[in-house]
Input
Amino acid sequence: MSRWQLRRSRCKGFTLVELLVVIAIIGTLMGLLLPAVQKVREAAASTRCKSNLHQLAIAAHDCNDTLGRLPPMAGTFGNAYYAPLFFHLLPFIEQEPVAKMAAWLDYTAFVGKRSPNPATTINIGVIWPTWDSVDVSNHTFLRQTRIQVYQCPSDPSLHNCLDWCDGDASYAGNFQVFGDPGKVPNSNNFWLLEPAFDGGARIPATFTDGTSQTIVFAEKYARCDGAGSPGGTWWMRGVFHGARSLGGGWDDSYPADRLSAVFGGGRGTDGTIWRSGPGSRFLVQPNRFLQRPGPCDKRLASSPHSGGMNVALGDGSVRFLSQGISGSTWWAACTPNGNDLLGNDW
Output
């Protein structure tokens, strides 16, 4: 072997010490970069959440302009029978084909059934979403349909499936706006509750406190079991069971129950009472959301973001509310016609 070949062979590759130094440098760089990457991802997710809320607010305005009023928290409205708020908004978020699927149902379906039977799926001739409505485009139950605008990518509780799976949501409507707090009875009889879930709201007529100072939508965990039975937020919750008569059966959730997209008041057919008044101030990043009892309360709006929560206002804008906001200011922003003033913490 020549001297040149010997020198070349000695310079080939890394020594063990050099390799360890390189690995240590890469590890250090990864440690420095990972928090930055996570911050970028969270910022992107937060932006998406804000965009979704803005789309919901604009959809409400479009509905008001088209039909002369806002949709109810739950009820018959437009061309849809006995439907919840987020169902009524589907045509105004470019999801009208999904709404039209509510004309189909599997009349042999039962609670807990994961897929419909094509042989017993029929067209009932009207838009009436039920537990048994079928999306015939992919032959799944309509209640399991994922609507991206209704889901915040920052929500850690998404897709904790019971029987509605991808039909969960990360936002809820303000009962003080879309419902009628003056008609909420002490009984959970649905015949008495139904009128309370339609406030007949109009923009700007019923927003005497100002649209820019009234919350219409807020973030709310898709799954939140802390206060009693499993709870959360599902976009199509608040419907009848298609195989039952009106009001029949324990499995009917109309006009709302513990899994409905509601905050700021109201009473459900299962006895759930969503908190109202200053004590209804939202939760921020409640952990252990599947734990019972736990810190997550399905009766409150809840935010997956650090330091506060995003809300959509009646003028179509989106605002981030600080975690330190007082209960009185929060409630003043929830009431559209309470003649109350927002605090300096708004």
